[in-house]
Write a structure and sequence with these properties.
single chain, 246 residues, alpha+beta, Aminopeptidase, globular
Length: 246
């Protein structure tokens, strides 16, 4: 088995143009978060020292993005309920204003399907911790998407409490973070938002969306709220804040 090498994008700027075409395992509707659409693409260009790639024989097999931000400051007394969306906005605002930053947040870690179950997720979290620490930051936060959660009706707060016999979380991604030294802080109940017409939801999911009420959508962590009367449906995804003290 060949060696997998992890570097920052600052060390491999030639890879940046290809990240937009990177394989994506997220559900189709998750690509419609407007905050991500507006701001995520700039992260590798603005913070290459905090974004990572893993290569094997020159092929990119994993990548990760994180963003620096100022916290806590006036107007930001605690980790936000709007988790992922909010921290991406905070980091982008701080960069635009030239504000000094002292902590960072993970935004995503993507592993190529052929390279999962090889311990690469743990290595990527460790490398992200190292990159943030090298920047002089004391803490790495992560609004984790617990994609092991398959029961949409189960509240996230209850899912987070589920542990294995060894005391580690049942969720694979939460388990990776805890093993790496992170601690679960709280649920971010409205971490990502996808709001669209029923026609758009039908196109993304293949579901009828013809009744007002909750709709269970494959890949969604909680139900999607549908209103036939208003011809719209809203998905408010909860994530889980994890704190890594470095």
């Amino acid at each position: 088995m060949t060696e997998i090498v992890i570097t920052t994008l600052a060390e491999r700027p030639d890879v940046v143009p290809y990240l937009g075409d990177f394989w994506n395992s997220w559900p189709e509707f998750m690509k419609e978060d407007l905050v991500a659409d507006a701001l995520l693409g700039a992260v590798p260009k603005e913070f290459p020292d905090q974004c990572l790639i893993a290569t094997e024989d020159g092929e990119v097999v994993a990548h990760a993005r994180s963003i620096p931000f100022a916290f806590p400051i006036e107007g930001r007394p605690e980790l936000p309920a709007r988790g992922w969306d909010q921290v991406l906005q905070w980091g982008s605002e701080d960069h635009r204003l030239g504000r000094a930053t002292n902590v960072s947040s993970a935004l995503e870690i993507m592993i190529k399907p052929t390279h999962r179950a090889r311990g690469l997720s743990h290595r990527m979290v460790g490398a992200m911790r190292d990159a943030v620490k090298a920047k002089g930051h004391s803490t790495l936060y992560a609004p984790v998407r617990p994609n092991g959660k398959t029961a949409a009706a189960l509240p996230m707060a209850q899912y987070v409490e589920q542990v294995r016999e060894d005391g580690l979380p049942v969720d694979p991604w939460l388990r990776v973070h805890v093993r790496a030294g992170g601690k679960i802080v709280k649920v971010a109940p409205t971490s990502m938002t996808v709001s669209a017409s029923l026609a758009e939801w039908r196109e993304w999911t293949g579901l009828p969306f013809d009744r007002t009420g909750d709709v269970i959508v494959p890949g969604a962590l909680v139900p999607v709220h549908c209103s036939v009367e208003h011809d719209s449906a809203v998905y408010l995804e909860p994530n889980v804040w994890v704190q890594h003290d470095l």
